[in-house]
Amino acid sequence: MRGQRAASVPGVRNLTDADVDRIASGVASRLASLALKIGIGVVVVVWVLPYFLLQLLVVLSSMTRGLPQPLAVAIVATVLALPVIALIVLTSRRRSATRS
């Protein structure tokens, strides 16, 4: 049906082929960008994050060597929880900023 014109409807603007191509290319580029972001996110979550967390655990265990075990566990748990807490705070601030 491309190239053929539909009957004109009063009050409705018909799109030209150039308009349709422009809109389609915008949608395609956004989808490609989203796919790239998702791909990078998967790579980071699957490969980089576990490596980083294991290295952090090694460092923390060497830093708490010689301390009583309950104190060492509390320190390690606190250090590991800090990024999660920061992420929750940043997400809540972003949501409250978009609502107002």
Plain-language structure description:
This protein is mostly helical. The chain has a domain at 1-47. It has 2 helices and no strands. It has helices spanning 17-63, 69-99.
H-E order: HH
Q: Largest sheet, described in full?
A: none
Low-confidence stretches: none
Helix percent band: over 70%
Q: What's the alpha carbon Rg, rounded to whole Å?
A: 26 Å
The fraction of residues in strands falls at under 5%
What structural category do the secondary elements indicate?
mainly alpha
How many helices in DSSP terms? 2
Query: What's the pLDDT, averaged over the residues?
Result: 85
Ends apart, CA distance between termini: 45 Å
- Which word captures the global form? elongated
How many E strands?
0
How are the SSEs ordered, and which strands pair?
Elements: H1 17-63, H2 69-99
Quick overview:
With 100 residues, the protein is an all-alpha fold.
Distinctive features:
100 residues, mainly alpha, 2 helices, elongated
